[in-house]
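During the reporting period the student researcher (J.K.) took over the structure-prediction task from the postdoctoral fellow and processed the backlog of single-chain submissions. One of the processed entries is reproduced below for the supervisory committee.
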Amino acid sequence: MLGAMRRVSSDDFARHIRARVFEAADETDGALALYAERAVPPPNNNLPPDPLFSQSATRPRRATGARAMAVDPNDEVGSEGIVAQLITELNRENPEKFLNHPGPDRLRVTQDALDAKKSFRGKAVVPALPVRKFILLTDIIGSGNRGWRYLEAAWRVATIKSLWSTRQTKGVSFEVIAYASTTPGFERVNSHAMQPTIRTVCECPTIEGSLSTAMAAKVKSLCVQYDPANRRRGALGYEDTGALIAFAHGMPNNCPRVFWAASESWAPLFPARVTAASRAEFASELNASEVEARLLAMRQKRLAEGVDFAIAPPGALERYLVLASLSHPPRTVDVVARRTGLTQIVVEDVLKEALTYGWIDPTFCLTDAGHAELSAAKGQRKADAAVPSAVPLYYPSSLRAPRISSS
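J.K. obtained the following structure tokens:
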């Protein structure tokens, strides 16, 4: 399980979430309303969530409020605190494009109102862009329940539902941006009535998705046998997700309890889901041993033996992994990311580069040039590719007077 676990550093998390936010921003000429995913009341998931904003009880049910609550002051602050800080930084960089948890008062401001210089809450209009996207940010979509309930809380606000109904022209569309997502969680959030666009950085590794069928069965049995809570239900984490991921800011409760729960006879690696003691080991850069292991897992033994990855230039490790993965189908971005262990963003960048160099065609199949690139690497030997530690200087072994020109 530890070998299959993805460990996400703070820099890696922030960099990739920002990249997805900027990607969404490039696709719209309006402002983006950014919200950190958090649990919405009531805590009982069997009951419908309360509306995200207060609204009148009688028609027209107009919602009011300048801002949404980023974190619940009466509850423990989890990953939503990290995400809220990231939203604050984006807002400070570009306050017109990235809005920090705006309320319905700001969401309703239209382009017509801005052009007419109408007042906003009794003051001169400061925002220069109407809101066109409502984006929910989170670290992981595990079971998908918390994300779905947050969207449902927004959906229960009449003003937001009205804005959504005109999303094709002047209204607001909805998106969810997550660093990682499991397949069931993705499907759960995607099933919401508001039909959100979901952007992820990578697929969340799970016990079933990362291990062979036989090994997964053994691992599940181990998690149940040594479950600190001594309960079969939830031994693989919340909703028995079996997620294998740890962030520098903490481990989600979707991971097996043996990692984070304690008992009189069990000391977990990440007590109470806190990763502070080992977050320094959450490196975001690939190393040679990781690349070789991933190539061997893809049955690329000759490539693993042919290149000295320890002295490879920047970007070469990712390039070899992606090209090797494209040697056989399927060749979608998410499948390549799963095979290589890279994020979808890194895979997308390498694919763009490979298209530019003519190594792959538009369907991501290797061209003759791409096959030649891999063949050349497989034909090398690490001893031949090694860079000498010191280049010997040339000096002449004998001296003679220079020839005198006859002319």
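The committee noted the following: The beta strands are 6-8, 31-36, 98-100, 131-141, 173-181, 197-203, 245-247.
J.K. will present the remaining backlog at the next meeting.
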